[in-house]
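Q: For a teaching session next week I want to show students how multiple molecules come together into a single three-dimensional assembly. I've collected the sequence lines for a complex. Could you give me the predicted structure tokens for the whole thing so I can convert them for display?
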Amino acid sequence: MVGAMALGLLAVFAEDHFPLLMLSTVMLYATVALGLNVQFGYTGVVNFAGAAFFGIGAYTSAELIGHTALPLGGLFAAAIGLVLVFPVVRTRGHYAAVVTIAFSVLFQTFLEVNDTLGGPQGLSVGPMRLFGWSFADGPVLFGVETSFYLNYALAALVVLAPAFLMLRRQERSWIGLSLDAVRLDEAASACYDIGIRRAKILAFVIGNLVIGVAGALYGGMLGYIAPTSFTFSDSLILAAAIVVILPEKLQAIQEYRFLLFSVVVMAILLFRSEGLLPRAVRRYLPAPRDSEEVIR
Amino acid sequence: MIQTESALAVDTRGLPLTPERLLDIQGLAKSFGGVRALNDVSFSVGRGEILGLIGPNGSGKTTSFNVLTGLYRPDGGKIAFDGADITGNTPQTVYRAGIARTFQRSRLCLELSIFDNIMVGNHARLNHGLVFNLFQRKAFRLEVESALAEATALAASFSPKLGDAMFQPVGALPMIERRRIEICRALISRPKLLLLDELSAGMTHDETHQLMDDILAVRERQGGLSIIIIEHEMGVIERVSDHCVVLNYGEKIVEGSYQDVASDRLVQEAYLGSE
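A: Of course. Below is the structure for the complete assembly, covering every listed component.
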């Protein structure tokens, strides 16, 4: 249903560059949020290097433009995450957070001194090409020439939808249960044979894989990437679509938009602290049981 | 009189115990900084036996559970379980060997459902492969259905209401139901030894006895389950334990049947102080 809605939106804006760019960005940020949610939301593994893994994906696609860019961007981010996860599982709480912050800063510095990757000037990313389908030209649909951003919007949907479906499937499985148990009570989980390290490594790697794929597509879409796009402070605001959409929609009220934006964020924290869409109890199987009563 | 290890040929019901002990703890020691939480503690549990572990607050009862289940590494001593040495093993391997426990302060995942919480205890018997969980949907469905049937039956044997509400979050339930779920979580994997850490905490006298009856009924059905129970409510200990071990300041001061230890001078001094 959400997919149909997104397709509908794409059809409405098929000829306009800017709304399509915004829409694609929202979908890619949503994909990143899914990845971060597996890490922090389910398993409780903090990752303040989200933007860095996003950047790893983007830089991969800059170097390897072509139909291997997306999977390779994801795999590369996952592989680097697999190295970083070892200091992360050896630490807890604030210290684990510090490890990821350090990596985030390290990543930016590495990009700035690395001439092969463009140094502080960054890199231009050639238009993407998937199996002979060039993303540089707008596809002609029903005789109408559409914006070339439609390619990226469709690709973003193709990245977002399976990521959403697969991660939901994972959440509704024994794996999802063990991730939750690790977050809620590590010691008790260990007493029931749940592998704490395995759960954390799995969540970290899967999350970064998803983030990396989104980053690879994002790089291709922007056409130009620089170290400053993937800093620690970007990791902090990666959280939600609202970050992208709201400031744009509020252009009309000029500087006051930042004030209003802060008010919205605080209102959400105060009144919907469990999130705009709170999580339902895990059902495992699609068929709902309705013969339930509340125990008193 | 106080029984010694060699005199334990029969249990309190006069039945001969199998010569092989299920759990054998020798000279267990654990210190936290300068505090000796456990000092040269030895006791054993026979197959099918219920051992009461008693003593004043801070005497080392919960610490011995934590060492036994691998949460703490012992500083000295040996733990043998079911013929294998499990000294210093991780909580995961201890659990796989067949020891399950409950916690003094209820440690359920409050936002998760009853079924989820019981399944945490069933972890070792579920398939956690990534491919199985994501792609083999038919096999996964079968596993969920059989696990749900088993967990529902177990929960219903404690309270029919629990069995009807497997997908309710645990946080909304009263204390007695939470205790029941915690015991289901420990029993679902069919352990050989169950460690109950202060069952009565937060419950009334009657609720505690009711819960104990339910546990004994499940024990009857599963057959041969041994239990170590930590309890301050002496009525419970008197009723269910075959044998008692009394700790004080991290040392075993007395062991024997409930009647023996209750009338022992050292035990009375430990609880009430000496003149």
